[in-house]
């Protein structure tokens, strides 16, 4: 066997102040190979990639060896490294929204990348830019050269970032969570594109991801990292079929899955039989518009949606970004002005209520947001954060409130000692539990959870979802559960509404919608989810390209 | 772009209208009376009343205000009480001097800020940063009357290379080299504070930009740090720096009063001082209104430049 293209040996990264680092990582990537670096946050996967391209954060020190095509990279001076970056190894990042310079055109940014390595200029650079945009499958490449990043969609931006990375034909492409911030159909397109690029140009790819579906879809080999150490490395099929390490098995088991098409769920009744009882939440032909009529641009965010959520049930809202799912959630609390229709919470029309009665209604509903770091005040202790709703509504005596805080902490399985801690001392999963406890403080009848587990690692996500299901069973609140992750919704929701461009395209029992989708769009969404099973990918591969055309 | 400007115009006009009344009322509320200054201490009550009626000061406040607005509409700025002559001519003479001085100072401040902050961020050297930070603090902390006197002492007395004050005898156009000599000291003195504040702001803005993800993208492409600062980060930091520059312009106008006094520069600063102490209402009003107008226009220009620099304002999104 020839020497691999990339050879990382005993890489260790340390910081002057204590934080997750890399202890001992060894990875090889052969020419034309796709290797996945898998692990949860803090496992050191991103740091490893940054060490390879020589862009570690200030204060970080790397030891060991990083060889590319036989040349040692670690310890190169800034000038020598600049010559390597982009030319021999390039990188694609997670967040396409901020990865491009907002005030420069696409064409300018590609020309700048070419210029960095003394490549072509002027007319030739323009021709090369068109060629690159064509390669990443951007329509009308000539015209797009003059566009600014904000004029492109998220998926198109990621394609441009990819075009930049490919500009100088690097031997190795590092992709750090390249599809995490994208919608599932866009993710499928980008994954397919990465595979085609590898097949066409022979570029090696080291992809960093936490998504086992992405791994199964793209990688030839997998390296599993945990707390800065490699716990397992194997071929993709082998790893999925026979995971050796307990942690790998745990990681695979934690991935929420969608029902298989032949699970025999068709027998399930679809529409909930009207019980005659008052619904927990009712949307009656609601519409919401953004933009102002005066400026002549009205965008319907929600367009004639009618949905009903029974007491004690969980309604999952799924859809891609811009489908209106978050807006529907905010409507339940009357946080968005209605353009038409009615929203009733527990039978009462939100629009008709003022002052005290409106406040009473709001007491009965609670929110859990995506990012627990942003939704908890950093200066509040955990105890204060959970008690705040009680203080605001003046519930009970001081002692009774403290008692309630202790109960809630216990309910979300956090030790009572956490009352004195601050949010920053907690992990993401612990913070989301606190957010959940805070939402449950006033015993709500309706909980709106907007992407509550999207910022969490899979194993943590599994724990939080299990806790959520348990609490929901026990306390019996109704819940609107919003997520872009179909598998997550499948694990918690009784009913599901699939949204697209502000309209409900399909609505029914979760098992039925996911197991036997009636609408074409639902089927496409489900097909686009990368299945955490490498044997499936070859069957779905070619179909994805056609899907892209259809969706576009 | 025109559309963008037109949307801002109404609020600018409202500001001017409110300011004009505020100035008009404020000038009359200040203790002291132009009549007693004009008539002298020994004047009889009849003589005072005659002067008052002559100046129209016996009319109700609102009537006086409407009268003044009518004059302004016909571009008649009135006659000075004390100095005599048309306010228009008095202001025009001083305005040229003051505008040349403040614009030069603005230019110097911007240039210094640009050079210093780019140097600080490109070199990213501890000693350079310390030196710049020291100079910066000094420039902000020292009051104008100290720096002005020190500058005169150093460059006009110890090393007599520049004039200690006054305006160029042949004007600004005929002999630009001589004009530059006369301008240099007062302009530097005026620019110091604003330049230092601007440097501090721009350096921090550039450092923030250098931490943005798009800079990491550029570095991962093998583009050198220096080039990223010059062609990408600076371009992103400029819009907010322009806003600060617009606000600094107001400080410069205020500072000009002092600097003109130190360097015996016959600009609006001296004129306004004289007008206020003499309770020369027409002159004070026009001068104050003029500075408000200049400020409003600068803010409008700032917005336009901002929009021009940022394509997200200039071109609406079509994607997503």
Written description of the protein model:
Chain A has 552 residues and is α/β, with parallel strands linked by helices. In chain A, strands 6-7-8-3-9-10 form a six-stranded mixed β-sheet, with helices on both faces. In chain A, helix 8 crosses helix 21. The two termini of chain A are 43 Å apart. Helices cover 79% and strands 0% of the residues of chain B. Chain B is built from 14 helices and no strands. Chain B is an all-alpha fold and 320 residues long. In chain B, helix 11 runs antiparallel to helix 13 and helix 12 runs antiparallel to helix 13. Chain B is globular. Classes of the chains: A alpha/beta (552), B mainly alpha (320). At the A-B interface, helix 2, helix 4 and helix 7 of A face helix 10 and helix 11 of B.
Total beta strands of chain A: 20
Average pLDDT over all residues of chain B: 87
Structural class of chain A: alpha/beta
Residue share in helices of chain A? 25-40%
Biggest interface, chains and residue tallies: A-B, 37 and 27 residues
Strand content of chain A: 15-25%
End-to-end Cα distance of chain A, whole Å, is 43 Å
What is the global morphology of chain B? globular
Low-pLDDT residue intervals, each spanning 5 or more residues of chain A: 262-269, 539-552
Strand content of chain B: under 5%
Summarize the amount of helix of chain B as a percent range: over 70%
Protein name (chain A): ABC transporter ATP-binding protein
GO molecular function, one term (chain A): ATP binding
Membrane topology (chain A): Peripheral membrane protein
Subcellular location (chain A): Cell membrane
Please outline the helices and strands.
The complex is a heterodimer of chains A (552) and B (320).
Chain A: E1 6-15, E2 22-29, E3 34-38, H1 45-53, E4 60-68, E5 71-72, H2 78-84, E6 89-92, H3 96-99, H4 106-116, H5 122-135, H6 141-144, H7 154-166, E7 172-176, H8 184-201, E8 204-209, H9 212-218, E9 221-226, E10 229-235, H10 236-241, H11 246-254, E11 281-290, E12 299-309, E13 314-318, H12 325-331, E14 340-345, E15 348-349, H13 355-363, E16 365-368, H14 372-375, H15 382-392, H16 398-411, H17 428-440, E17 446-450, H18 458-475, E18 478-483, H19 486-492, E19 495-500, E20 503-509, H20 510-515, H21 520-528, H22 534-551
Parallel strand pairs in A: 3-8, 3-9, 6-7, 7-8, 13-18, 13-19, 16-17, 17-18
Antiparallel strand pairs in A: 1-2, 1-4, 4-5, 9-10, 11-12, 11-14, 14-15, 19-20
Helix pairs in contact in A: 4-5, 4-7, 5-7, 8-21, 8-22, 9-22, 11-18, 15-16, 15-17, 16-17, 17-18
Chain B: H1 2-29, H2 34-39, H3 45-55, H4 61-73, H5 87-123, H6 126-141, H7 144-158, H8 171-174, H9 176-210, H10 213-220, H11 225-262, H12 268-277, H13 281-309, H14 311-314
Helix pairs in contact in B: 1-13, 5-9, 5-11, 6-9, 7-9, 7-11, 9-11, 11-12, 11-13, 12-13
